[in-house]
Design a protein that fits this description.
Layout (H helix, E strand, L loop, with lengths): L1 E11 L5 E14 L5 E13 L6 E11 L3 E12 L2 E13 L4 E12 L2 E2 L5 E2 L3 E10 L2
Length: 138
């Protein structure tokens, strides 16, 4: 019940060179006696951009499965680029309508570091993201 996910992506940046993204995530499912369980995950990655400070990302999270049809998720992600951090706090609920089909509602609170203005004040730029998706397992 342990899964290792490796990823690589090459991205062509407009008005620039290419960026190579790579990462890894490790997931493990801890079944409860009876129904349900807990899926824990942790991961990290790097984006290599020619001539730039390379951004780093890491994340941790878990999904608590209440029975076989309902899961409640919580995640934290940190992105670092040139000493500028972005924290992402996530939560979600997934409901398996059938064994193979599920719907999921997600919420993310994105909190970048404050930006110092020339006049000494700080610009706060946090924002929220909401999403809904359908998932199909085969």
């Amino acid at each position: 019940t342990t899964t290792l996910i490796l990823g690589y992506q090459n991205v062509n940046i407009n008005n620039g060179g290419d960026a190579d993204r790579w990462g890894a995530e490790l997931e493990h499912f801890f079944p409860f006696s009876g129904d349900g369980g807990l899926k824990a995950r942790a991961g990290g990655g790097k984006t290599v951009v020619s001539g730039e400070d390379d951004p780093t990302t890491w994340n941790i999270g878990a999904t608590w499965y209440i029975g076989n049809n309902l899961g409640i998720r919580a995640d934290f992600e940190k992105d670092d680029f040139k000493g500028f951090d972005v924290d992402v706090y996530g939560a979600g609920v997934e409901w398996f309508i059938t064994e193979n089909l599920a719907v999921e509602v997600d919420y993310n609170y994105i909190d970048p570091d404050d930006i110092n203005r020339r006049d000494g004040t700080k610009l706060r730029s946090e924002y929220d993201e909401w999403g809904i998706s359908a998932l199909y397992r085969f």
